Amino acid sequence: MSGSAVHRVTVLLGEEDWLVEEAVEEIVRGFLPPEARALNLDRLDAQETPIEEILARADTLPFFGGCRVVVVRNVDRLSADAQERLAAYLESGVPPCVLVLTARALDRRRRLTAVLQKVAELRTFDRLERDALVSLLQRRARHLGKRLSREAARALVTVAGTGLRTLVMELEKLSAYVGDRTEIEVEDVQEMAAGGGAVSVFELVDAVALGDASRALRSLQALGARENPVALVALLAGHFRALLATEALGSGARPEQVRTVLGNRAWLYRRYLDQLRRMRGFDLRGAYRELVEADREVKSTGLPARVVLERLVVRLTRHMRGPAAS
Prior knowledge:
With 326 residues, this protein is α/β, with parallel strands linked by helices.
């Protein structure tokens, strides 16, 4: 197949769905002006669309000449038979459209994966580490006409978690919150976090310490809507590490001590102290050991991360409660 075929089919892979969606829109903008999209743009979900329709749309010529773009999301959710049919279609020749496929991952055992490696441009969007998230948020802030300090970006990740879609939404709220001011500082993140009604890891830990499994599971569900389950385990572990560090510092620590021990979380010191007062008698070290075990289960047992998290929360509320739960 000729080199030009590679540019007719693009596969966007990875769990960072916000970046995947940004890449989809970039491709659409590059090939179709807004006025051409009503007739020459199809957006399909492989979970909901029969393979016959996907192939028919991909094989349809553009209306009135020009270019046609077909976006098919969740290609990895196609049945084995449907993947085989898509592989045969792509192997037979170049589609008359620009075909954009998205997937969390591709099964290397399938023929479709081998065919796509030959005929498509493959672009991967893995989950971003904290430093990469901070840099992306700073770039996004500039796009919004604001300057986000590195400390404020780190604070935002601490408060909102590592889910990129949620972080971008929270950054847009912050941009509106500061109004005409161009600088977004740590204090702005603090104030918005304190005044907002969003469920936070603090609420989840409060419910756990009180032994309130129902409330804890509701908080977990709300957090799970914006966080990858694996990242949620890390988020909870980081929170308990910060609580243990704050407990060691005590209530009279000097600001420089707090910054040295808590680092990016130093601005949450007073809030950690407040939570520790509500958790008097709670076995923090035992809870942290449970989290380490949950992290091992997620990475090595093959159990769904969501199941591991729910079992963890229930275990904590049943077995870790102290006088605060009485």
